[in-house]
Design a protein that fits this description.
This protein is of the alpha+beta class. The chain contains 8 helices and 17 strands. The strands form 4 sheets. The protein has a 7-stranded mixed beta sheet, with no helix packed on it. The protein is globular and about 50 Å long.
């Protein structure tokens, strides 16, 4: 979905254990290069190629990947993107997330207890081969080298300029981004959209909810017309007011 010049919200739907899940990565571009924010689940390389084609951005123009945090649905396609012979990519992430993305440490949400819980939640109708494949990915998650680390407040030149916002809570090195020209907040998993309403991060997937809500206060520094949430998609409305409510613990979380 076209947001403004230089920024597009991608809508990526995929099969996940017998059901469907839709995620909303962000594509940024200018006359020189394109940037993809997060890489979705494993196996989506061809889907991303089609999404860039629909956005009228040449695949070969993709030069940078920004990984907002270590979760599987954000790093899943990273190895395939890095292996694509048509691309020369630079990967950016927060330094706290770097060793997890690179496979030097097990993902924080992939503890033995978490894996056992995931196995127990797989529906009975899911074929055994799908079940084994899913659990194998959880136990051996994708990985890829992070070339540069980002810090809170850092300005990046992409698509007219974006600012890096460190928003820990959902994960320790979680990043959000602000695109200045369109006044768009790329919230990643710091916020979600549910039934058209802006909400906080998903509690069951957020180890430190108190910190995650406190991190939302950082968004008050920016005038926000549009919010892109990785889960739920687009929100347009009185975003600054709604985010302030969520940071104070008001409304549904």
């Amino acid at each position: 979905m076209y947001i403004a010049q230089g920024i597009e919200m991608l809508e990526i739907t995929t099969q996940v254990m017998g059901g469907k899940d839709t995620i909303y990565p962000t594509l940024l571009w200018d006359e020189h290069a394109a940037v993809l924010v997060d890489t979705g689940f494993p196996g989506l390389l061809s889907t991303f190629k089609e999404a860039l084609k629909e956005a009228h951005v040449p695949w070969e123009k993709l030069r940078t990947l920004i990984i907002t945090h270590q979760d599987l649905d954000h790093i899943g396609c990273l190895p395939a993107l890095l292996a694509d012979e048509d691309l020369e990519l630079t990967v950016l992430a927060h330094e706290i997330e770097q060793p997890y993305i690179q496979g030097e440490r097990m993902l924080l949400k992939h503890t033995p207890e978490a894996l056992a819980a995931a196995a127990a939640m797989i529906p009975a109708h899911v074929p055994e081969e799908w079940r084994r494949a899913f659990l194998s990915v959880l136990a051996h998650p994708p990985k890829g080298k992070v070339d540069q680390t980002l810090v809170d407040g850092e300005k990046l030149p992409f698509a007219g300029g974006i600012t890096v916002i460190h928003t820990p809570g959902h994960s320790p090195g979680h990043l959000s981004l602000y695109h200045h020209d369109s006044r768009t907040l790329i919230a990643a998993d710091a916020l979600t959209v549910q039934d058209g309403e802006l909400q906080g991060p998903t509690p069951s997937a957020t180890p430190d909810m108190e910190l995650a809500l406190s991190s939302l206060n950082k968004f008050s520094e920016y005038e926000i017309d549009t919010v892109i949430c990785y889960h739920g998609g687009l929100y347009r409305g009185d975003a600054n007011r709604r985010i302030a409510e969520l940071a104070e613990g008001k409304g549904k979380l």
